[in-house]
Specification:
Number of strands: 13
CATH architecture of the largest domain: 3-Layer(aba) Sandwich
CATH class of the largest domain: Alpha Beta
Order of helices and strands: HHHEEHEHEHEEHEEEEHEHEEH
CATH topology of the largest domain: D-Maltodextrin-Binding Protein, domain 2
Length: 301
């Protein structure tokens, strides 16, 4: 009979995460443990089972045949346990800690303004928000929901679409007064075009010519930034011309702080916005479902 002080499900979860994330250090970060604590836990599990589950080397971990079989059974058991807990909580009041990871622009301009109303609607949910334009691994970061702007890549994550935001080219009135208003995409050659420092945007800015052809302008300027919020601030300061999602700068356009540039040549390309999350068996914790339903209801792009 198993001893009561052995947390068998906890051992399974740590072991499964070590396999999925490819190492003790990554699993340790996910569980907020030290790598040595994770290593000792796996060693205790192996000692209790009487078999080696993982062959360790300085470069990588490799499952033994016994480890592969144990991982298969462990993930099935963990999924069944999670499903049982979620099904039991379907009718429960949404509560608990809800970790949300979002891009900086979406967080500042859409998510944070909605949180007071969300908190009034769900007072038992505590929201932990992380703003970053780095695409994170939900499993590794222990996030419940991540908001991602741009085309979705195939993954084991589920997603709910929140909408589409049109891309626009903008500049401050002061910049345009000093450097002139470009009348065609060719005129951009004489302007300072603000760019991002990461590869997602390296395909350039598309424009549709009057004859229907689509051309691409590669931005060239004296500044690279890490996120849309930094680019917005540089554009507002009159440093150059920027290309951003419409929801990000619509208040600045309405307030006259930024002006649309080359709108007649805008090809109408959009950036989809999704809420992505981990789901098992179609069931979600009540707190996660509450946020997803709320965002679909409230977010306007």
């Amino acid at each position: 009979m198993a001893r009561l002080d052995v947390n068998r499900s906890g051992e399974m979860e740590v072991f499964a995460r070590v396999v999925e994330l490819g190492g003790f250090s990554a699993a340790a970060r996910a569980f907020r443990m030290s790598p040595s604590a994770v290593s000792k836990l796996i060693s205790r599990l192996e000692a209790r089972l009487g078999v080696r589950l993982i062959n360790r080397s300085t470069r990588k971990l490799q499952l033994t045949p016994e480890g592969s079989a144990f991982y298969k059974h462990a993930t099935r058991i963990l999924d069944e346990m999670a499903t049982a807990e979620r099904e039991a909580a379907v009718g429960a009041t949404p509560s608990g800690l809800l970790r949300v990871n979002t891009s900086v622009p979406f967080g500042l301009h859409r998510l944070l303004p909605l949180l007071p109303d969300f908190a009034r609607r769900y007072p038992d949910i505590k929201v932990e928000v992380t703003l970053t334009d780095t695409v994170v691994d939900l499993l590794e970061q222990r996030a419940d929901v991540a908001i991602r702007v741009g085309a979705m890549r195939e993954s084991r994550l589920l997603a709910r679409k929140l909408g589409d935001s049109r891309m626009v080219v903008v500049a401050s009135p002061a910049y345009l007064a000093e450097r002139g208003v470009p009348n065609t995409p060719d005129d951009l050659a004489g302007h300072n075009l603000l760019d991002f420092g990461f590869s997602k945007w390296k395909n350039g800015w598309p424009f549709r010519e009057r004859d229907g052809r689509t051309i691409t302008v590669i931005p060239s300027g004296n500044a690279l930034v890490s996120d849309g919020e930094a680019m917005q601030h540089l554009a507002l300061a009159g440093m150059g011309i920027a290309r951003l999602t419409r929801f990000h700068v619509e208040d600045d356009i309405a307030g006259g702080r930024l002006a649309l540039v080359l709108e007649d040549f805008n090809p109408g390309d959009i950036e989809p916005v999704h809420a992505v999350f981990v789901g098992h068996g179609g069931q979600l914790p009540a707190r996660v479902r509450a946020l997803l339903d709320y965002l679909v209801e409230k977010v306007r792009l």
